[in-house]
Structures are given as C-alpha cells and as structure tokens.
Amino acid sequence: MEPSPGDGSSPSPSPVDQPYPPSDPPDQPPTAHAKPEQSSGDQPAGPGAAGEALAVLTSFGRRLLVLVPVYLAGAMGLSVGFVLFGLALYLGWRRVREEKERSLRVARQLLDDEERLTAKTLYMSHRELPAWVSFPDVEKAEWLNKIVAQVWPFLGQYMEKLLAETVAPAVRGSNPHLQTFTFTRVELGEKPLRILGVKVHTGQSKKQILLDLNISYVGDVQIDVEVKKYFCKAGVKGMQLHGVLRVILEPLMGDLPIVGAVSMFFIRRPTLDINWTGMTNLLDIPGLSSLSDTMIMDSIAAFLVLPNRLLVPLVPDLQDVAQLRSPLPRGIIRIHLLAARGLSSKDKYVKGLIEGKSDPYALVRVGTQAFCSRVINEELNPQWGETYEVMVHEVPGQEIEVEVFDKDPDKDDFLGRMKLDVGKVLQAGVMDEWFPLQGGQGQVHLRLEWLSLLPDAEKLEQILQWNRGVSSRPEPPSAAILVVYLDRAQDLPLKKGNKEPNPMVQLSIQDVTQESKAVYSTNCPVWEQAFRFFLQDPRSQELDVQVKDDSRALTLGALTLPLARLLTAPELTLDQWFQLSSSGPNSRLYMKLVMRLLYLDTSQVRFPAVPGIPGAWDLDESPQTGSSVDVPPRPCHTTPDSSFGTENVLRLHVLEAQDLIAKDRFLGGLVKGKSDPYVKLKLAGRSFRSHVVREDLNPRWNEIFEVIVTSIPGQELEVEVFDKDLDKDDFLGRCKVSLTTVLNSGFLDEWLTLEDVPSGRLHLRLERLTSRPTAAELEEVLQVNSLIQTQKSADLAAALLSVYLERAEDLPLRKGTKPPSPYATLAVGDTSHKTKTVPQTATPVWNESAAFLIRKPSTESLELQVRGEGSGTLGSLSLPLSELLVADRLCLDRWFTLSNGQGQVLLRAQLGILVSQHSGVEAHSHSYSHSSSSLSEEPELWSGLPQVTSSAPELRQRLTHSDSPPEAPAGLLGQVKLTVWYHSEERKLVGFIHSCRALRQNGRDPPDPYVSLLLLPDKNRGTKRKTSQKRRTLNPEFNERFEWELSLDEALQRKLDVSVKSSSSFMSRERDLLGKVQLDLAEIDLSQGAAQWYDLMDDKDKGSS
C-alpha cells in the first residue's frame, strides 16, 4: 500500500527539498518508490547493525548522563528541590528550543511554498505571479528578489571579510579577556532576504527619492565564534527578521552618479527571532530568551531604527554629511493623554463570580520613544491628564501608538490600542478627539499639537509666556530642542603609562544625561553621533560635556556651554572647535549645536476653562453662575508672591585687559601682528558685547552694562574675549564669576586670569545696586550716573520698575456677545513683556510680573495694552512714572481704568531708586557765586530721609519745567548749574550742563537759550562744545555731558569758559549773550564731581558767537 502524504508515521520531506521522481507528475504526491532504501533488501547488514548498536549505546549514555546531576546532588547533600528546579529549567529550555526550531521550519516552508500557496489561493496554476499584479500602494518587486538571490553568495563573502577584518579586531581590543576572539564560521546560507513589497512616496521633497521596502528574512544563517583562551564556543544558527526598511536617495545631483548618498533605517522596530548554538544555547532558557532577543533588538535599534540611520555616501567630499546622517526632526508632537472611557472590566473576584473593574494605564509610543502613564486604580473611565513630547523624524511613516492595559500582579491584561499616522497631525495642526480602541472596547481621549521648529529667537519670550499657562505633567512643556552633533576630539591626554585612552562623552542638560559610544585606543577619537535634548528655558540652561575614559573613572576633559550663547548665534547654530578645560593644552572638541524653538500656532489652541481638571478642553459651555452670596468680593489690591520686587540690578564695568595673545598674522604668518580684542558677557539669559579696540594687546574698553538678575543659586557670569577678524573671530580666553559671590558681597573689583589661553587677564568691576523705595536720592543718583557714564555705554539706570499684573475685569466682548481671549503687553521704552493668553473670558487672571530698568523716571512711562487673540486692542493704559515718584514708598497698587472707558486692570507698580555705593563720585548741590567769595547755599531738599508727603511739593517743583523764576536766589543775569569732574579711569575731563534758571529776558519773547563751553587757552577753538537749544524758556533743562581728552595736570592749567547764549532770529547768525562765567579748574576739586550753581556775568564781547 502506498503511503499517503498525510501519513503521520514519519515526517516526510517537503516538496521543495525532495525532487519529484521522473514518473510522477509535478502536481501529484510522491508514491512508494520515493523511498527505495526502505523497500529494498539489497543493503548489507553489517554496517546497519553496527550503526544500530551505536545508536543504542548513545541513547543509553545520554540517559545515564541525565542521572549524573541527581547523583551529584545526593553526594553534596542538596535537597530534592534543586533537582526539581534543574529539571524544570531543562524542560523549559527544551520547550523554547523546540518552539524556535518549529517556528523556523514553518517559516522556511511557508517562504519556499509562497508561490504555490499564492497560486492556489488565486486559483492559478504553478507559475510565477505576473509582475503586473500589484496592490493599491505597494508594488511587487520579484525582479529585485532575483537580483538579491544572485548577489547573496557574494554578500556572504563580504560579510565574512567584514566580520573577520573589522569586527573581530574591534572586539579583541575592547576587552583584554577577548584577545583570542575569532569568527570560526560565517555563512549566510542559501535562503536570501526577500522583499515582499515596495512603496514609493511621491509628493515629498524634489531633491530626494523615498522608498519603503517590506523585507522578510527567514534564513539558515550560521555564524560561530570562539574565545580560545576560555574554550568557549557560541553562535547563531537560523534567524528571522521582518520589518519595513526606508531607503532615502539624497541629495539628487546634476552629475554622476546622480545620487549623492543612500540612507537606510527601520521606521519601527523590526521583529526578531534567533536560534542560538553552543554556549549561547543558555539564552534559550525561558526568561533569557526574550531578554536576549530584546538586547539584540536594542543594538539594532541603536544603529538602524529611527532616529538612527545608516548613511552610505556615493560621492567624495559630500556636503552636510552630519545633516544627512542625523537630520533635524521634522517637528515635535505634544501629546496630551487626557482620559479614556468605556474600558472593559478585567478584574474578577471569587473565581469570576464577582466582576470588578480595571486598573488602567497607557503606553504611548512613537518609534523608539515610549512613555508610560500612571495607574488609575478601580476605574473604567480614567482621567490621566499627562503630557508627553516626541520628536517626529519621518512624515509619512511614523505612527502614534497608544496601548491601554489593566495592571495586575502577574500579567497585565490588554484593553485595546489605537494607531494614528503623524502626517494627519501635521495636516491638522491641532487634533482633539476621542479615538476608538482596537482589540478591545472603549475610547481614549488625546489632544495632539504639532510644534514647528523656528531657527531664530524672536519668539522665545512669547513661547515661554505661553508655556507658563500650559498645565503639563510629569514634565513642564519645552520651549526648544537642542541637537548636538558630536564629531571628533583632538589631542586628549593619555592615561597612566602613556597608554591610549578609550574616550567616550557624557552630555548633560540638568538631570538628563546621554552617552556616546566608546572609541578604543586613541586620543583623537571620531564619534560622528547625534544627541537630542528638550529645553524648558534655553536662556538659563547649560550643556555640560564630560570626556571620559570608558571606565568612567578618568576624566579627559570638560566643557560647560551656556545655551544662551546659541540665542545670539546665526540661525541658532554653533559649528566650531571647543577648547576643553581640565585637559591637555591642545585638547579640543568639535561639535555642531543646533537649537530650534518649538512654536505652536496659538490661534488653534484653547485651554481648559477650569484649571487643574484634566481633560476639561471643551469650552462651549460657560460655567454656571451662582448667587450673589457665592460671588467672591472684588479685591482692592494685588496679592503678589513673596519673590515679587526682589530682583537685583548688577552693574558690569569692563575696564581693560593685559597681556592678550596675538592672533593676527600677515604675509602667510611670516609677520606677527597683534589682536583686535572685544569682550562678550553672558548672564541671566542676556548677552552683551563691548566695542572693538584695534591693534592692542593691552586694550582699554571702559564700558558699563546693566542687567536684572534673581537670587537663584548656581548662576555665573561668563566672560569671553575674542579677536575680531573678517571671517571667524579668534578665541582669546574666558573667565567665570559666581553670581552668588557678587550678590553676597555687593561689590567685586578684580583682575581675572583668562582660562584656556597661555596668557592674558581681564579687569572687571561688578556692583550690586541697592534699590531704595524713596525718591530722596534720585537727583543725586542722576548726577552720579551722568558723571560715571562712559562714552561707549548707554544711559545708566536710575531706578528699577517692578510691575505685577494680576487681573482685568469688564473687558469688551467680541461682536457684542462672545468673550475675548485677552493677553496684555507691558512696555517701557524698547523693553516689553507679554503675558499669557487667557481663553474666552472678559475677566482674565494673569498673575504675572515683569521688571524694567528706568533711566529717567521723571520722563518715562509704563505703557500697558490689553489685546484679544485675533480681536485687536481691548484697552490701553499709560502710567507716567512721575506719579510713582510722589506716591507712598514709590508704589501704586489699585485698579486702573483703561483708556477706552470699558474695562479695568488690577496692577501694582513700584519703583526702587538704584543707589551706587562704589561709584567713586560724591554728588553735592551747592550754589556758588563766582562774582564774590560768598556762597549762596541752595535749600537742601533731600537731606536725610524725609517723609514722602512733606517732600512731594518740592519734588514736583524740581520735576516740573516751569518758566517762572524759582525762589532760590540768583544773580541779575541768572544762574547756570554744572558739574566739572575729572574721570581718572578714562583720563578725561567731564563737564555736565544741568540747567539754567532766572535768565534775563531782553525782548518781548523769552529767549531760545543754549550753553557754549570752551577750554582756555584755545587758539583753534578745538575744545568748543555746545548744548542743544531750548525754545522760549527762562529756565531751560539740558542734562548734557561733554568730554575733553587731556591729562589731569593739563586740565589744572586750563580755564573753562561757560557762555549762555540765545539765537537772535531765525535767519541771522548773530547770537545774544545772556551771561557767562569763567572757572579756573585749578581752584575746583575735580575729584568730587559736585554740581553747583554759578552766577552769570556780563561781558564786553556781547553778541559774539
């Protein structure tokens, strides 16, 4: 009787592995003559009997070997439990091993029979599926599979060379215990990789070709390794790999080979199954099997799964290789995991008689980025309210996947999943939907926001203000991302014994640390890796770089880079060498740092009406209004937190430098020049830059900068000196000063040694200005500022304005019925602050503060505008700071009515007069009559600390520009108030014209006065200076500064001629002399800088210009 194909007595070979006999048709099963060796009796009996006996002995030996562990356990006195545990471990290993072998056999058979099964399913005969049969968006590529099959043996030869000549030496050098590591066998087998389908994405960039290859590899690969020192053998025999491989051909060029490079990566983690041999058989033990496959999959993901990719350049000197190897993300998706509803109940009690609920949690994945929410116990409608941010690298292709599970002590139950292509989020901008769960019941509520990447810092403040209004947990929302391309290092220090190090790099921002790979046995490593960080506030965060040996015990160099430096760089990018500290003299690191701001189109965003309730995103229903008893009383004053008004003002005085290194070279380096140095200062997210001093290794800048700082510990002032060049500025050194030290001491005047350069030091003077809530010293502060202000510096601040905007009420509605989405802007001069936007309300609550530096409090004002998102101006307010000067403790805290008459704001504004304790100048107010020796003292209005109420009329008199003569005594021709002071640090004579009073009126109309100054003797009149002209006033205010460059000895030999003049007519060049005074500088204490009134005298040269 002929055996049937279905006979299960013995496994029959597959039709592919066993050729059909000539007598059988190809579509019939093989008959009895397919096994001639079993039916023939012509075989000799000797060898068969010997083989049978050997098989029996082998079987008996194996069974006897199984009893050896039992005997050893009894001999060592171990309990039966050890034997049972070992037996269970062995049975588990056998089961996993057989499952893997069966899986491989089935996969190979399915792959070999694919054409036959496909033809049978489609009712076709045994022939190839035509190439024109295709699916809607995925095309078959049988021609490509034929090419791969033809190339496969040669690819095996290449892999053998690669493993033997490249991988094996690297493994041997990585560890001294692996010095005898070798590959003893490398065979890719006869089963080539198959491409099941190809999808070409059109409509993307015109400079690239995008393909998705659905690959499947079920191979008989065999790779054996051996460590001869330890007699250890291991290997792989058989493997499965399935996934979607994306291939990008870019950039496309106009020259051969048309394509500049090929990039390859898996969009999602491929599935992997490995059959181990040798010592690695232990990895098939239950528990270790999945762990080993996961570890190998992690290694593949670190190399070939997004955001990692394999780049193969096809042309030499390809531009932007780093950008191709690790391109910037396409965008960021902010995922708000809000809630779920209608989940299935998985918990059962009393053997299923009592149905409980579930303890749901969610897993959110995008590529290799995964997040796990917290567990909500006993709830079928959980509210999570969590926010995650993920980087999107490929659109289309990547997917957002959310899986919901029920938390259990043993194995978590699956409740459902949803998937969404990120391209839909890109198109929508903002998606807020309930998504049904597949494979279960219920829905999950997601809010998805697409954040674009901006290459400039213009909208950083707006983004930070917006993020302050976003309720996000477990992490605060990010304002930017940082991509660090770690390229290479040079001249790292050697280890002890002059051994080459194995360098690796740790990059840290706050508590997030990422590590590079280790490069073995070199002090000039090349990493070529990219790292990505989310940034909450790039103004205050720093990138810490540590170069270490792979043992982590030896530090080879360090670098701390404030990220605020990138905010002032072109396109927020730094691409350069960085000098390493705590390293060799020539040790440096090459990196490219790219920052991008995360911008959300806020016109599409609406926040919860009730803060703190997760998932409250629907704002169509207005909150119910209770009775009048329930309405809280309207507050009369603001309630800022304790940190309001505690800011400090730091005055940074950059004086000079000495012994800078020369960087300029001429005639190809044959002639050594000097340097053109300038200084960069960075503190509290702000950057300042001095002017350039040409051709000087001992430059003198003498510039003053001011910045508002807080008392947050850990802040540092970073100072860098550069040589200005036409192409790239050369580094001349850096130094750092702890902000805590300056704030505690109040003053610092030191020569600081420049780091990372052979020579050079910098003279800095830092002072914390004391803020006082009284206007008694304002005039003195203004005088001191006018004297110490340098020619290159901006006007110095006289006061600090702190503003706290709490809320608004009764704002106008849009189109008469809809509430606006208001925000406010506060501005003083060119400095402004924008609050968050409160959605759809006429009574917004902001609770935000801002601080401004005030140069002239008597003339400046605070400008406030309340605007609606997309609806224009809702109201404005202009608050002159002169009103604060006469207020109690220089503070106003009340409701202010907006200019449109509809709407009010609750606001607190307070001034603090900034008094310098270390200016080196004493400002006094005296009245001095030059015509006689008698002194007419001006009434001292600011002595002591008087009550503000009593000094208010006097203060108003000083601040008001009135033409009526003041009551202070004056000469017949009037008086001029001026300060003469010698600035020893700048080596200049400084004259400051404050004002005139009680000038003489010659005609019917008041004069148009100005002041002319001349240093005598001066034949060429090169020292002549004059103020601007004031119109029709007898009491002009000038407040203008003039300088003369001369030594102190020369100044003491001069006389200062001060003339007050007026233009006689519009068309005439003649000038009327209103009065003059001549000061002998030798008789004046030029070190004090006292402001004095001088009586004007007549002159015979009346009318001279």
Automatic annotation (TrEMBL):
TM ranges: 70-93, 247-267
GO biological process terms held by the UniProt record: endoplasmic reticulum-plasma membrane tethering; lipid transport
GO molecular function, one term: calcium ion binding
InterPro entries found in the cross-reference section: C2_dom, C2_domain_sf, C2C_KIAA1228, Ext_Synaptotagmin_C2A, Ext_Synaptotagmin_C2B, Extended_Synaptotagmin, SMP_LBD, Synaptotagmin_SMP
Species this protein is from: Ovis aries (Sheep)
Protein name according to UniProt: Extended synaptotagmin-1
CDD domains: C2A_C2C_Synaptotagmin_like, C2B_Synaptotagmin-like, C2C_KIAA1228, SMP_ESyt1
GO cellular component: endoplasmic reticulum membrane; plasma membrane
Subcellular localization(s) per the UniProt record: Cell membrane; Endoplasmic reticulum membrane
Annotated SUPFAM superfamilies: C2 domain (Calcium/lipid-binding domain, CaLB) (SSF49562)
Stretches the record annotates as Disordered: 1-50, 925-947
Function: Binds calcium (via the C2 domains) and translocates to sites of contact between the endoplasmic reticulum and the cell membrane in response to increased cytosolic calcium levels. Helps tether the endoplasmic reticulum to the cell membrane and promotes the formation of appositions between the endoplasmic reticulum and the cell membrane. Acts as an inhibitor of ADGRD1 G-protein-coupled receptor activity in absence of cytosolic calcium. Binds glycerophospholipids in a barrel-like domain and may play a role in cellular lipid transport.
Record text on subunit structure and interactions: Interacts with ESYT2 and ESYT3. Interacts with ADGRD1; inhibiting the G-protein-coupled receptor activity of ADGRD1. Interaction with ADGRD1 is abolished when cytosolic calcium increases, relieving ADGRD1 G-protein-coupled receptor activity. Interacts (phosphorylated form) with SLC2A4.
Signal peptide stretch: none
Positions of the C2 domain: 314-435, 456-582, 630-752, 782-900, 972-1094
Membrane topology: Peripheral membrane protein; Multi-pass membrane protein
Family membership noted in the UniProt record: Belongs to the extended synaptotagmin family.
Occurrences of domain SMP-LTD (ranges): 137-315
Keyword terms of this UniProt record: Acetylation, Calcium, Cell membrane, Endoplasmic reticulum, Lipid transport, Lipid-binding, Membrane, Metal-binding, Phosphoprotein, Repeat, Transmembrane, Transmembrane helix, Transport
Major localization class: membrane
Low complexity: compositionally biased ranges: 1-11, 926-945
Biased composition (Pro residues): 12-29
